[in-house]
Amino acid sequence: MSPESMSFESNEGLREKLLRFLKERGFEDAETKVLLLEWENGENKKVENQEGSWESLIAKETARGELYLDSGFKDLVIEEFEVARMIAYQSYNDDIVAQIDAKIQSIKPSI
Question: What Rg, from alpha-carbon coordinates, does the chain have?
Answer without folding.
Answer: 14
